[in-house]
Structure formats: structure tokens, C-alpha cells
Amino acid sequence: MKIALWIILAIAISLGLVIAIGILMFRREIKKLNPDYIVQFVKAKSGSRNVSLSIKHNGENWVDVNGHEQLPLASTVKIILAIEYAQQAAEGKIDPQKEVRLKELDKFYIPKTDGGAHEAWITQLKKGKETDSVPLCEVANGMIAYSSNANTEYLIEVLGLQNINRVPKSLGILNHEPVYPIVSALYIPAQLMNEKNLSKEEVLDVMKNMDMDEYRNRAIEIHNRWLGKPLTEQEIKQIRKTLDMDFQKIWSDRLPRSTTRDYVSIMKKLNSKIHFNANVYKYLDPVMEQIMKNQNNREWLVHAGQKGGSTAFILTIAMYATDKERNQTEIAFFANELNTLEKAKLSRNMNGFQLKFLKDSKFRTHIKKELSSLALYDS
């Protein structure tokens, strides 16, 4: 018996060491800074069509790998809402200074489903002061700067889904799936369980076979219901309980999709400062160009903006920049079906990749050389 216990103990210690070493190696791997990782990742994964990269530099199509592939946007889709917000503000349809009670935003807030984004925004708002309301422009700012999903859902109601969904077409974008309330969609599994008394496995099966029109309509119906009857604490707990990785994957896969080619086109319009009238940029730039709040960036950039997004399986980003030598760059990168290490390494290196592209002509040439042949996948 003692020998058996020692064997069990030895195995447990060995497993513990293996896990500890694995965690240490994982942490070391994701801490490495290597902007070229993005290039090599695109090169290695391009055949799967789960990664797409489109870059324009000074009007030239620098790179376009799988640029036509529709991939889930995650929070990068919030750029569309920012554009509609700016257009309505410029036309006087909404008042950016109108006060919005934070309790109105709480109707669409589900704790621990947005990576702490909404809480971080609230914390920043209340630094050194107590407030229970903010101007509408600050709600839009929180949607882009902090990626608050609650703010996004609130703005869907203010701006109107029909208006929001007219934006891509007005920009010449034909491959953009409709925007819908993505926070409300989190409640669909719980709704199905309550409506039909289904088990988790049965709900998974129903959702996998549900067409997108029904899925979007359910999300819109839930959104409209929350306006008058917000979630109870019990319902919030039920959402968080049901949102395991299986349901998160379905939610992630069903997020609005578009292409990097289309988002580079949108970035070009934001970068040019001539596509919209000046009054639209007056409201759009303060929301989109969070980068320019950093004094170091203002020393070498005329203007720049970006919005990224992620889920457990997705990483996306779209950005634009004009430097003081008048070089103009637009980049869109979308990746889906990521594992934990891939997502961590992409997140760690994306900013370095962008900066090096903007500042290093040799790196730009290297990217073109490494990826230009991959156009063969773009059929």
C-alpha cells in the first residue's frame, strides 16, 4: 500500500512539474516581441482561408492575402457604428452633448462577458468624481476606446439598425453582413432553454442548425425587450452559466462578417479626410483617433485611427495612418479559428507589426516579398 501511495505521489509531482514547465514555456513564448510573427503566421495559415491581410501604402495595393474572404469582425465592426454616429451628429439628427444616464447603459451590460471593457470605461469616467450620466459623445468614445459592448448596444438603439446597416453600402461595400445586437445574442441559448425546456446538448443542436435570419431576429427581439424590461439578476446569472466554450464558439462564428479588402477601403476613406464632408470628420476623428491622444504619436503622425476586436477564437484589426512625411497606410487583418497560443502571440506582436510597417521601409519590402506570391489563393 505504501509503495502504491509513493507511486501515486511521484506521478502527481511529475504531472505538476510538466504543467508548471508548460505554463512557463507558454508565458515565455507569448512575451517574445517579434513583428515578423504576423508575416509568418499569414504565410503559414493562408491556405486555410481563416486569415486575411490587406495593406495599402501610398495608394498601392501592398499586400492582399485572402482579401476577399468573409471573416467574423468581432468588435472591429464598431467602426460602422462610429461612422453612422458621426454622420448623424453632423446632420443634427443626434446631439453628441445629450446626457445619457449610466443606468440606461446597464440594461445591456452583462458582467464578465466583455473582458472588463465596460468596467474599465466606467472606472476611467469616475476618476476623482462621482457621475451618473455622460454625454452621448463619451458613450461613442467608450465604444471605440474601451470596446464597451453595452455602449455599442445602446448606440444601436439611438442610431437605428436600419441606418447603421446602410453605411457599408453607402461606402461601396457589398460583402458586409448585417449588424445586429451582439450582446442580446448572448441570451439566445438561455432563451431557448426556457422556451422549450431543452438540455444544453439540444440547444447546441438547435443553434447550430438555426439560420442567420432567425438568429438575428431573435437578437433584435431580445434587444427590444430589454429596453422596457432589463435582465434580472437571475437571468444574468443564467447567461453566464450557459456561456461555456461551446456556446461562445457559436456566438463567435455568427458575428457579422466582412473582408479585409473592404475594411482597407473604409480605412482609406477615413484616412483621406475628403470622402465625407468636414463636419463628419469633426465628430468622427475624436472617436476613431484615440492613438493621437498620445503625445509621442503626435510628434510623427498627422492623424491615425484604429479599432480591433477579439473573442476566444478571433483577432481582428483595421487601422489607418498618415505620417508627417505624408505617407498614407491602411491595414486590415482578420484571423479566425485561433488557438490560445496563436491568439496570444498575434495580440502581443500586432502593434509592433503596425509600427514597423509604418516606420521601416526594409520591413515593408520584406512583407511584400514574403506575401505577394500568396495572391494565388485569392480566386
Automatic annotation (TrEMBL):
List the keywords (alphabetical).
Carboxypeptidase, Hydrolase, Membrane, Protease, Transmembrane, Transmembrane helix
Q: Which GO terms describe its molecular function?
A: beta-lactamase activity; carboxypeptidase activity
Query: Is-annotated flag, keyword Cell division?
Result: no
Chain segments annotated as transmembrane: 6-26
The cross-references to SUPFAM superfamilies, in alphabetical order and at most eight, read: beta-lactamase/transpeptidase-like
Please provide the Gene Ontology terms (biological process) for this protein: beta-lactam antibiotic catabolic process; response to antibiotic
**Presence of the UniProt keyword S-adenosyl-L-methionine in the record:** no
Name a Pfam family for this protein.
Answer: Beta-lactamase2
Residue stretches making up the Beta-lactamase class A catalytic domain: 58-173
Q: Which InterPro entries match?
A: Beta-lactam/transpept-like (IPR012338), Beta-lactam_cat (IPR045155), Beta-lactam_class-A (IPR000871)
Q: What is this protein called?
A: D-alanyl-D-alanine carboxypeptidase
Which species is listed as the source?
Bacillus glycinifermentans
Please name the taxonomic classification of the source.
Bacteria, Bacillati, Bacillota, Bacilli, Bacillales
